[in-house]
C-alpha cells in the first residue's frame, strides 16, 4: 500500500504553507530557523542542482496558486487570503527573477551567502542535551559536502562569467581567515558532552578543513577570475535586486531616481537636526566632532559580558514600559535574549527570530570586533531597532499570530523593506515618546537615521552611476555632477557617521555585495509612516495608536507595493 497523497490546497494560505514545507525539505536550514524538525541533521544542496530545484519549486507553487485562485475568485474577499496570495505571488516572482539573472551563481558577500548560512545554523540549533549534540555532530559531518556544492556553484558561475568584484572576495577571505584562527567549529564543539567528544571533534576538524578548502579555492582559483569585475552592478541587475529586498518594482519608470532624490532630501533634513543636537552635546562642535567626543569621553560599558547584560536590561525595561501603553504583548513575545556574535561576523548588529513554537527565543547579536569598551551613545537607538520595539516585537508577534495567518506570511515571506522599515519606525517612535532626552543618545538616534539616508543615496548612486547632487557639501563639493564611485561613497559615509572605521569599511562592502538591501530601511520606514498617517486621517479623533500598532504587527509580511495601503485601512 502507498500512503495517500495530501489533499490539494484550496486556499492561498494552504498553497503558501505547503510551499514552506517543501522549502524545508530542500533547505533544512529554513526548518531549523523555524524551530521545526529538530532531529533533521541535513544541510541544503547549494550546488547548481540545488539552485535548479528551488526554482522548479517556485514555478510549481505559482502554478498551484493560479489554479486555486481561478477555482474560487471569492477568496480575494478575505483580506488575509488576499494579502497572502499577493505576497506569495510577488515573492516567488522576485525569487525567479533573481534565479533567471543567475545571481545564485555569484552569491558571495560578507553577510548573506550560503557560506555564512551553513555556519549560522549551528548557532540556532538546540544544544542542551546529549541528543541535541548528537544531531549537531551529524550535521557537522555534512559541512564538507555542503561547501563542496557551494564551490561547484561558484565555479559554474565563473565559467558563465557570473562573478563578484574582487572587493567581495578579499573581504570574505579575511572572514574565513578569522573563522580558521579559532578554529570556529573546533571551538564550537568544545562545550559538548564528553561522551560525544570524539565524534564531535572529528566532525569539527572536517568542517574546519572544509572552510580552509573554500578559502584556498577563493584565493587561488576564484579570485584571479574576478579581476576587472566592477563593483557596481548596473541598472538592470540593481532593479532585480531591489525588488527582492523591497517587494516593489522600483526599476520601472523613474522609481530609483525618485528614491535617490528623496534619500538626499532626508540626508539634508537630518543633518540640520544633527547640527542642533551637536551644539547641545558640545557647543561649537560639528556633528562628527560631537560624536567623536562621545565615543572617547561619553558614558561607556567596560567588558563584553557587561555590555551583553546592559543590552538585555535595556530590552527588558522597554518591554515593561511599552506593554499596555503602546503595545499589548503576549507572554511569549516578552522573552528576548541579548547575545554576543561569533568571531568573523560582519560588523553590524543583527537579530534572529524565534522558533515557531518559541522554543528558541528571539535574539539580538552584537559583534564586538575585538573591542572591550562600548560607548553607549550610539547603542541605545540600535537596540530599539534590533530588539524592542523593533525587530523583536514585529517578528515575535508574527510567530504569535502565525496560526491565524500562515506560516509563510510570518516567516519565509518576510520582505526586507517591511521588516527593516518597522525597525526604523520603532526608533523614530521612541524619539516621539521622549526616550532620547539625553543629547548624546539623541545624537546617536540621528546618526542611525542619517546612516540609513546615506545608504539610499550611495547604494543607488554607486550602482547606477548617478551624479552627485548639485548642493553637495564637504568632501562631495568638488565632485558635484560627477558619478558616484565606491571611494567617494566611503568618504561621504565617513563624513556623516560616528561609527568606527572597521564598521564603515564593512558597510561599504555590504552595499556593493548586496545591491538594493541598503535602501530597504528608509523606504520601508517611509511606507510605515505614510500608512500610519493615512490611518490617523481616516480615524480622526478615534485613532488609537496602540490598537493600530497591534493590528499592523499582526497582518504579517507585505511588500512596499501593498504595505502603506494596507496600513491605512487599519
TrEMBL record:
Question: What InterPro entries does the database record attribute to this sequence?
Answer: DUF885 (IPR010281)
Q: Which Pfam families match?
A: DUF885
PANTHER family, A to Z: DUF885 DOMAIN-CONTAINING PROTEIN, GLR0591 PROTEIN
Query: Under which name does UniProt file this protein?
Result: DUF885 domain-containing protein
* Species assigned in the record: Blastococcus carthaginiensis
